[in-house]
Amino acid sequence: MITWKDVINFSVNGNPTPDTRVEKTDTEWQAQLTPEQFRITRQKGTERPHSGALCSTHDAGKYNCVCCNTPLFDSTIKFNSGTGWPSFTQPIKENAIKYEKDTAFGMLRVEVMCNTCDAHLGHVFPDGPEPSGLRYCINSESMQLEKE
Ligand SMILES: [Zn+2]
Fold first, then answer.
1. How far is the CA of 115 from the centre of ligand 1 (A)?
2. How far apart are CA 52 and CA 42, in angstroms?
3. How far is the CA of 60 from the centre of ligand 1 (A)?
4. What are the beta bridge partners of residue 138?
5. Which intervals hold domain MsrB (predicted)?
6. Mind listing the pLDDT tens digit for each residue in 60-117?
7. How far is the CA of 23 from the centre of ligand 1 (A)?
């Protein structure tokens, strides 16, 4: 299980190696994504809270990266955080997610990205439920639900 200590360690000392890499130009991503998906995943945007289609869904399945379709989270680790963004307590596997320190807006936060294609997903905070204590706060627009 990944804990806040691991998150800090990844963001300071380097991330786990992904199974595979997907690299495309902005033009290629733009052709494949909606404008809102492009703004969030490739330009580190944030959707308005409670606006995301996946915020209140609890269907069983996997949450895949909207850019490269790599599984990132699954419905068993999703929880209702009340924040207005889909929230998870763990990644689907340790090397699915990439962590980077983000000092934008004068705050120290940890940005989470798809480790396969570097899509911006959201942030992770150390105020989630036990046992991991993590809250991955993720934009709906950066994921697609593959229902079981
Ligand atoms: Zn991806």
1. 7
2. 17
3. 21
4. 122
5. 26-148
6. 999 999 999 999 999 999 999 999 999 999 999 999 999 999 988 888 899 999 999 9
7. 9
